From TrEMBL:
Protein name: Glycolipid transfer protein domain-containing protein
Domain Glycolipid transfer protein residue range list: 89-250
Family: Belongs to the GLTP family.
Pfam families: GLTP
Keyword tags: Membrane, Transmembrane, Transmembrane helix
GO molecular function terms attached to this record: ceramide 1-phosphate binding; ceramide 1-phosphate transfer activity
Record InterPro entries: GLTP_sf, Glycolipid_transfer_prot_dom
Source organism, top-level taxon: Eukaryota
GO CC annotation: cytosol; membrane
Record-annotated membrane-spanning stretches: 7-27
Organism (species): Hemibagrus wyckioides
Any single biological process term in GO: negative regulation of interleukin-1 beta production
Coiled coil ranges: none
Origin organism lineage: Eukaryota, Metazoa, Chordata, Craniata, Vertebrata
Amino acid sequence: MGVRGRATLAVIVIIISLFSLWLYGGLDHYWENCRKDSITEEHSTSLYGSNTWSEDNPPPLEVCPGQKFQFAYLLMHLQAAPVSTNDVLLKPYLASWDELIKFMETLGPMVGIISQEIETKTSIIRKLAKKEEEENNPQGRNASASHGAYVSVRSMIVAELERGFVNFDRLTESGCRTLLRLHRALLWLQLFLHSLADKKKEMMEHSPSELCREAYRLTLAQHHSWWVKKAAELAFVAMPERRFFYKLMCVRTQAEASALLNRVVKAIQIVYDRTQVALVEYDMLALP
């Protein structure tokens, strides 16, 4: 099934899902159940405790109890990804995406459709890396983690260009083309998280659904067909309110949420910028 076919199916599934939620008491009831499953409703602890803090002197993130997605793990992987002066390690990069996928899954089944597509992309790169490792090390001996085509963004680009894996005229499942798709999606999520972190009154008046839709319009929508755009916009309709994100972050106020989110956004920016430079340097942005 092609992209248009999957998008059409997604639209149908989303509409049916929304209608079902309304029949069973509305979306508020659905999100209330989600919160009970993943987060303690009454006494949510704050990552910041009672100590004084500021955005210039942030405390270390701790694991937020009782939930699958952890901002602490996301930040840890993002900070481990940059290497040398201009490269990005693929292992922590993909681990960052594992956490971002969990983040999207907490936002409900509609956004979960998007996360499934992204997970497919991360699997492609991991399979390519595993295949190369098996070919170069058939005996299964412990190989150095610092060598190989799929160690970093730049090593992957150079290796796939040398091996003729990259095609600028037709679609292929090369690591470079797959990375470009992930790269675009990362910009969307970064802009969404940045919008959630914005404490200005005019931004606070917008719901997370509106912020996510606008972030999508400015980023991923530029590369999607009409059908895919409509499916994505419908997915954002059922996104939970801001209060849900506070609980997801284990914070109580917008100030605390902003401090946490800004740290994640800055870490994403470093990874994104390094990846962008590498993609531009090798003309990877032109991949179909």
